[in-house]
Task: structure prediction
Amino acid sequence: MTLTPDVLRLLVAKALASRPDEMSCGECDARLDRFAEISLAGRDAADALPLVEEHLEGCPGCREEFEALMDVLRAAEREGQPWWRRLLARRG
Ligand SMILES: [Zn+2]
Result:
């Protein structure tokens, strides 16, 4: 294989497709409540935590967990029980 610019481009694209900073499910999970909190606050969670957003896009399991978390938080908001805000604030 000769390293023509085309081949190099291909290699770079391949390397980027499996980025080392990609998140594992555990790491995603650890940031999920923060991500949900930002979403609920009406801010751009994808912008604040792009790696979480990216992981959720590609991981149905974590996506499901996120949706479930959002359901719980939304229900608490509806019922005027923003207990989760205090919870998250305490955890920093
Ligand atoms: Zn995952």
